[in-house]
Amino acid sequence: LSTEITVGGGFDLEVTVAEKPQFTVTGYSAVSAIDDTECCEGVWDGFYASDIAENAVSQSERLYAVYENGDEYVRCHIGSPECTVGDTVVIPESTWAIFRLSSTEDAYVNGFYRNINNSWLPSVSYEKRTDVPNIEVFPSDMSEDGFEWEIHIPIKKGN
Questions:
Q1: pLDDT 10s digits, 118-139
Q2: Do the Cβ atoms of 67 and 136 come closer than 8 Å?
Q3: The pLDDT of residue 96
Q4: Residues 28, 55: Cα–Cα separation, whole Å
Q5: Which region, left, alpha or beta, applies to residue 40 given φ > 0 means left and ψ of -120 to 50 means alpha?
């Protein structure tokens, strides 16, 4: 199942809707303040400073950042399904709205998320699942500018 929607405001929101079975992400885990506009940047720094990063990058072509929101914090898990060291988080079976981006500039990404929540979700027959974390999926090698990455939003049929 694939859907493509374009919303105004400077963002082209091309989305794929896909069912995915339960999976795990193993790697580095830490907490970031919920109001941090560079969400989890310190967690990424900790990931790359740890021994876990080498294992996660060498075991997989993709890195997963799993974001579990609390009232005042975001728990960030960075790793991969193939990583063999670190903390493990279980991602339940879900339907996902998958958005592709090629910019990691904070203002652009924050605006992209706002467009998903304020424009795309209200215009479709889906609601965001609050019991499943958002996920971002990156290539394990992010050394080149303009690499493509994805935002995965867990969704369910709306009313």
A1: 999 999 999 999 999 999 999 9
A2: yes
A3: 97
A4: 11
A5: left
